[in-house]
Amino acid sequence: MRSLLRINQPCIGKEEIEAVTEVLKEGLLTDKSGAGPQVLQFEKAFSKYTGAKYAIAVNSGTAALHASLMASNIGQGDEVLVPSFTFPATAGAVLLAGAKPIFIDIDPKTYCMRVDLIESKISNRTSAIIPVHLYGLPADMSAIIKIAGKSGLTVIEDAAQALGAEYQDKKIGNIGDASCFSFYGVKNITTGEGGMITTNDAEFAEKIRRVRVHGEERPYWVSTLGHNYRMTEIAASIGTVQLKKLPTFLEKRRKNAEHLTKKLQDIKKLDLALEPEGSKHAWHLYTVRMRGANAGKRNRVVSKLRSKNIGAAVYYETPVHLLPLYRKYASQKTDLQETEKASRQVFSLPIHPMVKQDHIEEIAKNLERILTKN
Ligand SMILES: Cc1ncc(COP(=O)(O)O)c(C=O)c1O
User: How far is ligand 1, taken at its centre, from the CA of residue 83, in Å?
Assistant: First the structure.
C-alpha cells in the first residue's frame, strides 16, 4: 500500500542540500546584524519576485506579523481587525504586540474577511487591519485598502499561505502597507522555519530591520524595543534556492487543483475551491465544503479518506474566537456565524507538487465513493 499522501510536504532537492553545505563550510551560520550575505541575497530575490521595494527576512511568519505591528507602533490601547477563521498566529501577533484583536466574519465562498462588515467594527481605537489570504486566495484587497485609507488604518497582510498569489495583476506582497510571509516546513516554499516582510515604505523597512535585532540602531545601542527575529544564513540559503523553484511548484499546484476540480465537479454534496475573477490562487490548500445536511459527516469523511492513506485535513476545526485564550475578545457569538459554519464543514485535500495526476484520480475516486455511501 502507498504511504500517506500528506496534505503538504517540503520539496527539497540536491540544490538546497548543496546550498546549506556551502554555508556550513563557510562557517558564518548567522550574522549579528540580521543581514548576512545569504539573507541579503534571499531578500533581494524576494523583493524582485513580489515587486515590493523592500523585503526583510525574519525567523517565522509569526515574527513577521509581530515585527510589522511593532514597527507600526501598534500596542496597548489599540484594536486590530482580524478574521477568526485563520491560524491562531494572526491574532496571537496582535496580543504579543499588546493590542486587542477584533474578529470579523468571513465570506462563505472565499473564506477571507467579509469586507462589508469591516466598517461596523471600526472604533476610535482601531489602528490596523490584518486580512488573511486564506489557503492562498487573496482577500478583497481593493475594498480593504479603500476602507483603511478612509479611516487611517495600517494594512498588514497575513500572506503566510499566499506566496505566489496575485490580486488584480499584482503579486501579493506589493499591495498593503506590509505583507507577512511564512516559510514554515510545509508552506509553498520553506526554510524550515522562516518569514519575510515586504513593504514599499523605506522608513517602515528600517524600523522592521531594527525590531529584528533587539531594536539596535548600531551594535549594542538600543533606543526602541525589539526582538531576536534574525533569519539564519542556513535558512536564507535554502530560501534562495526554493524561491527559484517556486514557479514550478506553483504550476504543479495549479495543475493539480484544476484536475481535482474537473474530477469533483459533479459531486452535488461538495462546494469546491474557487478562484474568483481578478485573483490568482497560490493553491497552498485545496479546500472543499460539505453542503448543508451533509456537513455533520465531515469528520467521518476525513477519517475515511485518511484510512485510505489520503491525508485530508481540516483547517481550522476551531475558529480562533472559540479558543480558550481568545473567547474574551469575541463580543457576540452570532457575529461570526459564517466562520463557525465553515469550521464545521470544510476540509482540504492534497495538491502539493509531489502529488501526481494518478493521486488526484485516486483522491477523487475515493472521495466520490465515500460520499455516495455516507
Ligand atoms: C495564516 C497564517 N498566519 C500565520 C502563520 C504563522 O507562520 P509561522 O508558522 O511561520 O510562524 C501561519 C503558518 O503557520 C499561517 O498559516
Answer: 14
87 CA to centre of ligand 1 in angstroms: 6
- Asked if pLDDT for residue 110 goes beyond 80, the answer is yes
Give the tens place of pLDDT for each residue, 231-272: 999 999 999 999 999 999 999 999 999 999 999 999 888 999
At residue 155 the predicted structure's pLDDT band, cuts being 50, 70 and 90, is very high
Q: May I ask the CATH architecture of the domain 14-241?
A: 3-Layer(aba) Sandwich (3.40)
Which numbered atom of ligand 1 lies nearest the CA of 60?
10
Run of H or E including 79? strand 79-83
By alpha-carbon position, which residue is closest to atom 7 of ligand 1?
Answer: 61
CATH 3.90.1150.10 fits domain 246-373: yes
Query: Which residues are designated catalytic?
Result: 187
- pTM score: 0.98
* Residue extents of the structural domains in the chain: 14-241, 246-373
